[in-house]
Amino acid sequence: MKTVQLRLPATSANLGPGFDAMALALELFLEIDATPATQFSIQATGRNPNICGGLTRNLLIETYKSILAAEQRQVVPLDLRMRNGIPVGMGCGSSAAVRLAAVALASAFGDLGWNAARIVDHAVGLEGHPDNVAACWHGGLTIAADTQQLAIISLPPPPGWRALLILPETPVATSKARSMLPQSYPRQDVVTNVQCVALLTAAFATGRSDLMHLATFDRLHQPYRAELCPLLPALLPLAGNHGVMSVTLSGAGPAVMLLKQTTEEEALKEAILELAGPVCPVEILPADLCREGAGMSVGE
Question: What is the DSSP secondary-structure string of 239-257?
């Protein structure tokens, strides 16, 4: 009996100015064991088990079935054992991880024989933008462009850099966050973001923590999402204090990601709770930066 094991990391996209182009993989994982069955079943543990384990309107199952139907292959029902460590609906790449999982499972159980590049390319088409998918599969900080063809570069994280995710109680749909953005931007705002994303790439590649606060300045999406994601303006004063290098929305939000160097965290956690308290209750979730990206094994 064929078995497929998948391990896919959370991702935090944009990092301020890198809108729809950059994402960072985090060591919070969606893990799936899949085997053929007579009917679909899911045993879900970890975060959001009610969402992950539901059989109706399940993104993983519906995507898997639609791919096999499009490729004119028989739909093989699966017994899925799922351990989810990725916050759902928080801007941490949960949908990218699920879509990648669905494509990989369809390739394996539909005998499509797709290689890694084809799996990633198909998942990018489903997701609509390449940032989270690229980081989830390749790990590190990925810069992805999907113009004439998909191009991806992955940079390894500098040693000693770590992330803190600050999670509010209420999720925000990505579609709602995208609806807050304008249809066009002033030229100077675009130029500023081009400068910052170039600086961010260089600062990350060379480990220049002193430049990260400047490099993560954004004019294209974060100012317009502040109403939906009030934690961001509340926590921005932390940049440059308590070892915090940068404060950005995680993806489309509402979670906020702090990049920091390895230091004592208790004083930082107290500062976070003090600033976030007037806004909403929060969960502080530490995460190491993920170098390796997705893992997939197929056995008989």
Answer: TTSTTEEEEEE-TTSSSEE
3-state secondary structure of 171: coil
Would you state the structure tokens that stand for residue 87, as one six-digit string? 């916050």
Cβ-count burial 35-65 (b if 16+ within 10 Å, e if not): eeeeebebebeebbeebbbeeeebbbbebbb
In the three-class reduction of DSSP (H, G, I as helix; E, B as strand; rest coil), residue 204 is classed as helix
> Which tens digit of pLDDT belongs to each residue from 88-127?
999 999 999 999 999 999 999 999 999 999 999 999 999 9
273: its two tokens = 């709770």
Q: Give the global pTM.
A: 0.95
Cα distance between the two ends of the chain: 5
All structural domains of the chain, each given as residue ranges with its CATH number in brackets, are 3-155+290-299 (3.30.230.10), 161-288 (3.30.70.890)
The structure tokens listed for 93 are 């790449």
Q: Reduce the DSSP state of residue 91 to 3 states and report it.
A: coil
Please answer whether residues 168 and 281 qualify as being in contact, where contact means their C-beta atoms are separated by less than 8 angstroms: yes
Count Cβ atoms within 10 A of the Cβ of residue 290 and give its class: 0-12 exposed, 13-18 middle, 19 or more buried. Answer: buried
What one-character-per-residue DSSP string does 158-170 give?
A: PTTEEEEEEEESS
Q: What is the pLDDT of residues 192-226, one digit of tens each?
A: 999 999 999 999 999 999 999 999 999 999 999 99
